[in-house]
Amino acid sequence: MDLTTRGGFFTRAFGTPPREGEPTVVLVHGLGLSGRYFVPLARRLAAQGASVLVPDLPGNARSRGAAGRAPDITEHARALAVWHRRLGLGPVVLVANSVGCQVAAALAAAHPDMVGRLVLAGPALDPAVPAWRQCALLVQDAPREPLRLFALAVSDYLVTGLLRCAAEYRHALRDAAGSFEANLAQIHVPTLVVRGEGDPLVSPSWTRRITSLVDDGRTAEVPGAAHAAHYSAPDAMATLVRKFTADGPGGPA
């Protein structure tokens, strides 16, 4: 694993360096977190031969100093686009979790040339669910995740700062109520929507809704996993990403 500041903010790199003609896998973390909880998945993808980049989004964790305040979803997507250009990446396989899915959708909608395939794992937030209920569901999810993830998340939240986390949550709620579904409707690349079987934040109906909004949507469920399926079941997620990347357009749902 290579740890460095790339393209303007902190990035973890796994596997071989990005190569021309070979899609790089980019993993986008959720609200207030860092890319650390993607490390198990990144290692497995790299072992399969993929080039994997895992940035800490500006304002978060080790990229906290890259933003003077908590960026909103659109600002995160813009920063990710600048990072993409500076690194000279071609169309990437973009894999996101939770609120990171909103950032990924904003990037794919605004810069379709940058994203070749999209994986939305545990996509939040569902605009039909009130904010207080979203918080309650997050608490409900906590005991379903590995204890190591809980410790990692708390550490990241403290580094990012609780006030910034709260501001990012407000930004995410506004995006969910306004731009998120509109961005999904502008996505025309193959998109895989992944739900952990025991994820209380992402209902099967919301999964179907997202899949219906994108132009080429498919679904998958990870047995025994909750909201952070990429962390608790990295082997299953790596297999899903590999098979999805290998499938042609219009492959099986």
Can you give keywords for this protein?
253 residues; Rossmann fold; 8-stranded mixed β-sheet; alpha/beta; 10 helices; 43% helix
Structure description:
The chain has a single domain (2-246), classed as Rossmann fold, CATH 3.40.50.1820. The protein is an alpha/beta fold and 253 residues long. An eight-stranded mixed β-sheet has the order 1-2-4-3-5-6-7-8, sandwiched between helices. The protein has ten helices and eight strands. The chain is globular. The model is unreliable at 249-253 (pLDDT under 50).
Short description:
The protein is built from ten helices and eight strands.
Give a topology summary.
Layout: E1 2-6, E2 9-14, E3 25-28, H1 39-47, E4 52-55, H2 73-87, E5 92-97, H3 100-110, E6 115-121, H4 131-141, H5 147-160, H6 162-177, H7 180-185, E7 190-196, H8 204-213, E8 216-222, H9 229-232, H10 234-246
Parallel strand pairs: 3-4, 3-5, 5-6, 6-7, 7-8
Antiparallel strand pairs: 1-2, 2-4
**CATH architecture annotation name:** 3-Layer(aba) Sandwich
Major β-sheet profile: 8 strands, mixed
Compressed to H and E, one letter per element, the order equals: EEEHEHEHEHHHHEHEHH
CATH topology: Rossmann fold
The N- and C-terminal alpha carbons lie at a distance of: 33 Å
Poorly predicted runs are: 249-253
Shape: globular
- Cα Rg: 16 Å
Helix content: 40-55%
